[in-house]
Amino acid sequence: MVERVIERGREPEPQELVYEKIFRSQLEKTQQMAAGKVVIHGIDVPWEQSRQGLLKFILTHLNWHEVGTPGWLIFVQDIKRHSGKHRHQGGLGIFVLEGVGYTIVNGVRHDWEAGDLIVLPVMARGCEHQHFNLEPGKPCLWCAFIYDPFREALGSSIEQKEVHPDWQGPNEMPHG
Q1: What three-state secondary structure class fits 33?
Q2: CB-based contact 142:131 (threshold 8 Å)
Q3: How far apart are the first and last CA of the chain?
Q4: Dihedral of the CA atoms 131, 134, 139, 144 (nearest 10)?
Q5: Were both Cys, which of 4, 87, 115, 136 would link to 128 (CB 3.0–4.6 Å)?
């Protein structure tokens, strides 16, 4: 006679349900935001010369894990004479901190000064624009606010049309 031996294996670990994973992820995000930085000191953020101009990136995806408001792209631009020229989907606000100038949006000039808000429109084929300082040699600063989930939902891409004259990097015009 053959004896039957039944071995009982270990019960599989219960899998975390999708809803529970989402719930836990949201809770972790809420806790991170509540504990995140409230103040980012401008002195701690370096200026960098880019193909678009002299920029100071306050918030980007690189530091969202540290702050209470992830998802925002916020940067300051110092416009000496003019910025580079590029095209993207639009849908952002630019608050003028200091100076007097104008922005060309799809061939149309729009004048501005300190305290004004420039709103680049959302446009099907993108919004080509370039910024100019009307008083070269005097400070001309603005701060851009872009909510990245909105930008991503628009399928926004960026195309550099002209580089800033102080740009020392590669000369090819990336498209993205």
Answers
A1: helix
A2: yes
A3: 74
A4: -20
A5: 87
